[in-house]
Write a structure and sequence with these properties.
alpha/beta, 9-stranded mixed sheet, 5-stranded mixed sheet, 9 helices
């Protein structure tokens, strides 16, 4: 199996995000820690709970996180007594979670840790900065179920995506959905002049930009209201459609259903984690000349595949990896190795 250190050594902040629970994120994290060895001091936190013996969502056994001496750990106070490392408390934040305030500790011995980090990107960013202040040379943020937002550039320099048989018992579906996720994570940034136009609006959630410099703002609270009101704003000359927050199927379906009302259009998201479309809808959107771009690009380094499913049905590992390699534009690594 490839030494992952060669792929991440040039970065200071790495995030790991998963397509689903039990796709091998913790196994990957342990491999990263092992491959880094004593080359760099690691800082480690999470945007959810990780490191427990049994997955609290699926009730299945999972690997624990094993850290080296001198690592910096940011975790919730109630998790500290579940860490079997000897530890030095470095800093106590006022970031509260259901498991207590987030505390930074230094590992004075090798051992297993239980990690539950902050819930919000702004807090994660501050925690990473604190870990660096205390000596972290490579900070790793472990994402949680449905929280792909740890991939955005304000939190990490580079991102790793984990996928596997836990996503679906149909290998082709796993490959197709991962291909779609990679497509969105690697979306190009829009031109700087468009970014500047968007940045002028601090709070507005939906903004439409037309060729004649006309701008329309939609004041809606949810995607259903947006999709219902959108039709009257779709006309020739509409160039960019920006949404702050999640871009849902309802919104894209509104564009597809009113295809004749506009010409080619670009839908803008904050970053590639904000698009919640399945592969079928994405393909329909492309046929309708709907383009997608983002304000902040994501540096996706590689994809890891886990052929094992907690339901007991495993993929043939080489076939799975090779199929994935054919469909995605980044390196693919089998997280279980040989």
């Amino acid at each position: 199996m490839l030494d992952t250190y060669e792929l991440i050594k040039n970065y200071k902040r790495i995030s790991i995000i998963g397509m689903e629970k039990n796709v091998g994120k913790t196994t990957l994290l342990n491999k990263l820690i092992s491959d880094i060895g004593k080359k760099k001091k690691i800082g480690l936190t999470s945007i959810g709970r990780d490191g427990e013996d049994v997955d609290v969502v699926t009730n299945t056994d999972k690997p624990r996180i094993y850290v080296r001496e001198d690592s910096i750990i940011a975790t919730a106070r109630n998790c500290l007594n579940k860490c079997d490392i000897t530890k030095e408390i470095l800093y106590v934040t006022d970031f509260n979670t259901p498991m207590g305030d987030i505390v930074l500790v230094r590992a004075l011995s090798d051992g297993y840790v239980d990690i539950a980090g902050p819930s919000y990107n702004k807090q994660v960013k501050i925690v990473v900065e604190l870990m660096e202040k205390f000596g972290s040379e490579l900070s790793i943020v472990d994402g949680a179920l449905g929280r792909k937002s740890t991939a955005i550039s304000e939190v990490s320099d580079a991102t790793i995506l984990s996928t596997g048989a836990a996503l679906s018992l149909d290998m082709l579906k796993v490959v197709e959905e991962t291909k779609k996720a990679v497509y969105f994570l690697k979306l190009e940034e829009v031109a700087e002049e468009i970014k500047e136009k968007v940045r002028k609006f601090k709070e507005e959630k939906v903004i439409l930009f037309y060729k004649n410099d006309e701008i329309k703002i939609l004041n809606v609270d949810n995607s259903i209201d947006l999709s219902n009101n959108l039709k009257e704003y779709l006309r020739k000359g509409l160039e960019y459609f920006y949404i702050r927050g999640a871009i849902t199927p309802k919104v894209i379906e509104a564009f597809i259903n009113n295809r004749g009302a506009y010409e080619k259009i670009t839908i803008l998201g904050e970053d590639g984690t904000k698009f919640f479309l399945d592969s079928s809808l994405l393909n329909k959107a492309k046929l309708c000349e709907i383009d997608f771009k983002v304000l902040s690009g994501i540096n996706l380094l590689f994809v890891t595949t886990n052929p094992h499913s907690p339901l007991g049905v495993d993929f043939q590992k080489e076939e799975f990896r090779k199929r994935m390699e054919k469909e995605v534009s980044v390196p693919v690594i089998d997280v279980l190795g040989e």
